[in-house]
Design brief:
alpha+beta; Aldehyde Ferredoxin Oxidoreductase,  A, domain 1; six-stranded mixed beta sheet; about 15% helix
Amino acid sequence: MARLLRVNMTESTTRWEEVPEEYRRWGGRGLTSLLVAREVPPTCLPLGPLNTLVIAPGIVSGMAAPTPGRTSFGAKSPLTGGIKEANAGAASPGSRSPASGSRRSLSKGSRR
């Protein structure tokens, strides 16, 4: 069972939930863009509490292949106002995710 961790920075809470069927085949850059497009209001401020930081390992993370550990970080860009994504490689937290059952993480809100 794939799980999604939602972190609410405003309320200082976390919540695990099952990944919706429509997101299960997505990973990395595709998943970050899909979640930001569907869950972030288009008129929200990029540095405001309604923006969401999506952290998603690539679809081959955790496999026994050369450099499979790519993790994507996506959110609404303060520079362009569009969806922007960056990624990191090598051994990353995402490469361990399949063993723990978690493949996606979303962080929303602002720290008080």
